[in-house]
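Lecture 7 notes: from sequence to structure.
We start with the chain below.
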Amino acid sequence: MAKLLKNQIVLVNLINFNKVNGISYEPSTRKRIEGFKAVLDSRGITNTLRYSYGSDIKGACGQLASIS
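Predicted structure tokens for the same chain:
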């Protein structure tokens, strides 16, 4: 991602994926997210670590995929 976004004017929002029943993806650990953020920071890519709201109503990042 850092290579793709080099010399681009961007803001990357880092939002953790939430666990959803029936989907095989897993949320990243805080350590892994911070490591990814550090790579973006070191390459000069503007980014924001966001808190994921809405898990209590199954509307957080990734959870809408479970609605059919």
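Points to note: The chain is about 25% helix and 10% strand. The chain has a mean pLDDT of 80.
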